[in-house]
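Dear colleague,

Thank you for sharing your sequence with our group. We've completed the structure prediction you requested, and as agreed, I am returning the results in plain text so they can be pasted directly into your records. Please verify that the sequence below matches your submission; if there's any discrepancy, let me know and we will rerun it promptly.
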Amino acid sequence: SLSTDRTADIVRDYGGRFFQRPYDGRANNQNWAVENIEFKYPWVYYSDADEVIPPELRDEIMAVTSAPERPEVAYRVRFKNMLCGKWIKRSSMYPSWIPRLWRPERIRWERQANPVAIIDGPVGLLKNHFEHYSFNKGFDAWFEKHNKYSTHEAAETVKELDHGSVDWKGLLNKNPTRRRIAIKHLSFRIPARPVAKFLYMYLLRAGFLDGRPGLTYCTLQAIYEYMICCKVKELRRRERGLPV
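Please find the predicted structure tokens below.
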């Protein structure tokens, strides 16, 4: 995304290929990658810069991608959210299953904020976790990143409120991805969303058992939700030609 740090140099020092394009949303970037990069191998593992793959997950990835008889075209992976050296298991609403390993010709993404994967074929689940260090650059970087995320999320929220609906059956569906999306779409319509999110994470999901890191994480998530709500109101006022 035209980054100005040493990412390109580090990749090339390790013999990797590096591709650049202007950032216009995560889904657009990821779709561009699977459509335009000629990958060296049939399987791709996607990793953010703040994620660590333990040896157990590496070995499992090697095992499933070396078995041509398996029908799966993609795999979802759980992750451990880390804060202050602690796995905040309850506060982060574990487990969240997200696609990380796939055949590039069988996957696409929708939504620019927190993209949803559309996978053409059977999806498997890997047993092992990766570790997510979203605060590895400190709280200042976290706020800067989520300020940008909240802008995209506000636009998606307005789109969903204007043209979408609640997937009521999805709220009880056994598929964790569909259930998570249904809950998210329902949350767009809940009053006092920041407060509701904090109470859900900290009390109903027992985030208080994660100690002070859990309290910090739940509070930050409520702040993020409030940023989205503020930007939704801003978009609505701009639509009506009102001052912000």
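Summary note from our side: The mean pLDDT is 92.

Kind regards,
the structure core
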